[in-house]
Amino acid sequence: MKRAFVTGGAGFIGSSLVDRLLADGCAVVAWDNFSTGQERFLEAAQTHPAFTLVRGDNLDAPALTRAMAGCDIVFHFAANADVRFGLAHPERDLQQNTIATFNVLEAMRANGIRRIAFSSTGSVYGEAKVIPTPESAPFPVQTSLYGASKLAGEGMISAYCEGFGCEAYIFRFVSILGARYTHGHIFDFYKQLREHPGYLAVLGDGMQRKSYLHISDCLDAVLRVVCTSPAAKTPPRVQIYNLGTAEYCQVRDSIAWICGRLGLKPELRFGGGQRGWVGDNPFIFLDTAKIRATGWQPKLSIQQGVVRTVEWLMENQWVLDARA
Amino acid sequence: MKRAFVTGGAGFIGSSLVDRLLADGCAVVAWDNFSTGQERFLEAAQTHPAFTLVRGDNLDAPALTRAMAGCDIVFHFAANADVRFGLAHPERDLQQNTIATFNVLEAMRANGIRRIAFSSTGSVYGEAKVIPTPESAPFPVQTSLYGASKLAGEGMISAYCEGFGCEAYIFRFVSILGARYTHGHIFDFYKQLREHPGYLAVLGDGMQRKSYLHISDCLDAVLRVVCTSPAAKTPPRVQIYNLGTAEYCQVRDSIAWICGRLGLKPELRFGGGQRGWVGDNPFIFLDTAKIRATGWQPKLSIQQGVVRTVEWLMENQWVLDARA
Question: Is the pTM here over 0.90, yes or no?
């Protein structure tokens, strides 16, 4: 890995990866359309001589192909990650996730790049019947357009590996927390409490059980898989790993941690129902035995991740307005 | 079901379905871009007063939406079904299957149509580890762009059902045989033997184990599921059924049946290797307990299906030239 191409390189996870790769001595081309990415996330990277930023959209296939020239691995981390509002604009997941992934694969093929790491999601398991959910869980029924589009991406990537001899590392993430976090329940709650510290509107009944992972632990896992040669002489072309902690929390737990850190005791106003929105999964908990077998383990608990995210938001309130 | 919309209505399976629906008293709008569909398959339907043919492509979303007006169910049977040549034009499965399915779903939403039957494929199981493969098999790695695109279609359909309250019947077909058969190994072998009866070139080693189902049995199963209310009071929004016989055959068996019917003893020239092509699955055999539990069972064996298909090709040699 000498020169990495990072789609979504100005986003939460992408820009954090950019910094890690540069620190590890890898040249990096970050590619982003800045629909949700932030220039400020790349301020440190911009001072590094081995860093290149290219503005562009994954739907502009010729520009994507040109930008990728000379790279030897692609971290395809760009996505419409807005699970909750998928139904409001169904074409977005198709375009920004499914078609975008196809364009990335074709640009790799045009450039002779054979390695891809892909940020998939635990949402591909739909409402799993096996919990904690292993990578080999029964064939799921999709419940969100986001999950369906990531599943479509996984499928195309796998078929390209089989057909064109590429190698893929597919990571099914739980929700990721930490510095540069720009959407999700902590973001929403923090923003609400800044506006009205006396109450907090909560989707669903607050009993939803969710899993989270801190960005530093997430990137440790990704880079361990991508940089370490597997023990097998002929590793499978497609390596799939769940990424998460070995625990989950309830939305109510997270609220208590957030409010505790902020020193607030807001009235909680629950929307009701088991689900936060149509297609919301009331219980996400992934079996992470496979990634743990590589020697990786998370350093931070969910509670620590939540508190650190709150602290980062407190120090970076500009992001609340930038993502308004 | 009063007025059905059939995408791919001039194709092998679609046109056969059109005839069945008309015979059952249902009005039918057939939609086809005639990329592989045949006018001659609709000759009988064209004489029926309840039949309408609309020429159009699934990528033309406005025309698709207009054509669907007034229908109460969609049989989405149009597809690029060319598994073998997916790698030669990777964009075709994305466009004709994935994006096309999205357009069908959006056209349904615009028209307030809430029921969809979808022709998926046993290829979504990739190289299954559980054989015979049940609907709930472990989460597979995709090996073909065709399978990946059908999986993408299933995912979107399921997410639409969850998000917009639709009802879907997803059928994972093995290869279908019978009258109007226009591609596949019998087509290829028959065409070869017409040109050179003395030898037959066979992809792979001929040991590939495959499953087939006759079109009449296939449509019996589809219509049984779609027309029969399930026993459950609140049937699942997404009903998934494998469709196949409870047997499989080897390519060598099929060759013997074909040659036996034709009275030929050609020299067999095997290409070699376990797979017929990159991404070919050397063993496809689906567990069909779920569809059998509805009371359906196939009337024809694989051997009968193969022989009938040969006989139809003998009587309809025009199709060999039409699909040249």
Answer: yes
Domains and CATH numbers, chain B: 3-176+212-243 (3.40.50.720), 178-211+246-284+300-322 (3.90.25.10)
Whether residue A138 and residue B139 make contact (CB cut-off 8 A), yes or no, is yes
How far apart are alpha carbons A181 and A203 in whole angstroms?
Answer: 20
Query: Which amino acid is present at B90?
Result: P
The residue to which tokens 């069909």 are assigned: B288
Note whether A158 contacts B126, CB cutoff 8 Å: yes
- Which residues of chain A neighbour B154 with C-beta distances below 8 Å? 142
Q: Write out the DSSP string of A246-266.
A: S--EEHHHHHHHHHHHHT--P
For the stretch A20-58, pLDDT in tens is 999 999 999 999 999 999 999 999 999 999 999 999 999
Rounded Cα distance between A209 and B52, Å, is 51
- Residues of chain A contacting residue B159, judged by C-beta atoms under 8 Å apart: 86, 142-145, 147-148, 279
CA distances from B249 to A126, B203, B218, B283 (A): 35, 16, 18, 10
On the CB side of A44, how many CA atoms lie within 13 Å of its CA? 10
Longest dimension (CA), chain A: 59
| Set of chain A residues whose Cβ sits within 8 Å of the Cβ of B128 | none
Q: Beta B249-250 vs B209-210: how paired, if at all? A: antiparallel
ipTM of the complex: 0.94
> At A177, which amino acid appears?
L
CB burial class (10 A; 0-12, 13-18, 19+) of residue B31? buried
Answer whether B139's CB lies under 8 Å from A137's CB: yes
Asked if residues B192 and A181 have their Cβ atoms less than 8 Å apart, the reply is no
Q: How far is B176 from B218, CA to CA, in rounded Å?
A: 8
